[in-house]
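User: For a reading group we're discussing how well predicted structures match intuition. Take DUF2171 domain-containing protein. Before you show the prediction, I'll give you the sequence so everyone sees exactly what went in.
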Amino acid sequence: MTTSIKEHMEVIGADGIHVGTVDHVEGGRIKLTKKDSGEGSHKGHHHYISTALVAEVEGDKVRLSANSDVAVMFEEEASDDR
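Assistant: Thanks. Here is the predicted 3D structure of DUF2171 domain-containing protein, as structure tokens, for the group to look at:
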């Protein structure tokens, strides 16, 4: 299923709320674009969501098995971004 995840797809939570936009899939994680990186210290950093949270890929959307507020808690920041 993760092979059907493509750049610029919208990532949404199980509740239908926007979580981010796919930059690409990298090592079992979805790398989100920087424009969806949040505010404050999170702004301008790539964030990642584990592909284990993907429930389905439908059209141009990646639907997660968790609601958006829960999925955001599982996001990881790239440690090598500068």
